[in-house]
Design brief:
The protein has two domains: about 100 residues, Topoisomerase I, Chain A, domain 4, CATH 1.10.132; about 70 residues, Gyrase A, domain 2. It is built from four helices and six strands; from the N terminus they run αββββαββαα. The strands form two sheets. It has a four-stranded antiparallel β-sheet with strand order 3-4-6-5, with helices on one face. A two-stranded antiparallel ribbon has the order 1-2.
Length: about 190
Amino acid sequence: MSDDFLLDTDDLSKRMDGAIANLRVELASLRTGRGSGSMLEPIMVDAYGSMTPINQVGTVNVPEPRMVTINVWDKGLVGKVEKAIRESGLGINPQLNGTIIMLPIPELNEERRRELTKVAAGYAESARVSIRNIRRDGMDQIKKAKNDGMSEDDQKIWEEEVQDMTNTHIKKVDETLENKQSEIMQV
């Protein structure tokens, strides 16, 4: 490899790992018929003029497998939290009890399970696109170095390394998606 060109493969790998970590957070938000506090993590509430994570405006609890509760600290935000949950696409109908919002988790039917697997597939595709964009950044750096005098052999070696890294991360995305889809389809 060329002595004067060094591609920061650690940076590319960290960015690809970040795309996979983001995918795992998004997949955790998909409910599988059981209540979980993590299913509310991506929901943002318009609180005090800025978008705030739901767990920063109230306490999220799971008192039983099919129930999630949010004890909103500021009574004035209860309506905004309820609205954010309704608009989140979780398919849960919040019930108000003072400052406590109860989220009964309905049993998933076959049709809803299939919908959720499609949503999970969409999240995975977004992660794949992110990984491919990171690969493109690496390839652009390699092309720039080629224009600056890197040999074709070195260019091929670097491109293969970036492509191998990309393939490994895409495979992790596919495995993560497969695990989540089997979890969703499990009755």
